[in-house]
Amino acid sequence: VPTARLLLIERGAAQYHLDGHQVAISPGDLLLVPAMARRWWQATGGLTMAWCEFLVGERTPLDLSAARLHLAAAEFAEAVASWRRIAAAHERGGQAGRLVQEAELRALLA
Which of 41, 55, 85, 86 has the fewest CB atoms within 10 Å, i.e. the most exposed one? Predict the structure, then answer.
């Protein structure tokens, strides 16, 4: 897949497989999946997650220690709010909507 993904796990759990490595993900996890990585997941219960796909200039090496971050409750709530703003901006469309999406994604990746 030529796009990178940023996943936010809201509910449930899963095993996410990245280039032959396995990562357990659960509520509050934020996972950065590099572009061109072989990836698939297997839910181990009901799973609710939000993700955002984006293009990157070139493939970055997979660093699982940096790819997964568990958010504290307040950070998780802000990430969910950011995802909602991204979705609303996507629905609006246009240049202003794209700028909001980019700004929110950059904030999540910071």
Answer: 55
pLDDT tens for 55-82 read 776 656 656 555 777 888 889 889 889 8
Please spell the DSSP secondary structure of the chain, one letter per residue. --SEEEEEEEES-EEEEETTEEEEE-TTEEEEE-TT--EEEEESS--EEEEEEE--SSPPPP-HHHHEEEPPHHHHHHHHHHHHHHHHHHHH-HHHHHHHHHHHHHHHH-
What token pair was written down for 11?
A: 């509910």
Token pair, residue 96, equals: 């202003």
Question: What φ, ψ does residue 32 adopt, rounded to 5°?
Answer: -95, 120
Strands 21-25 and 29-33: unpaired
Instruction: Give the integer Cα–Cα distance in Å for 103 and 101.
Output: 6
- 8 Å CB contact between 55 and 3: yes
Q: Say what the pTM is.
A: 0.75
> pLDDT tens for residues 10-41?
999 999 898 888 888 999 999 888 888 888 88
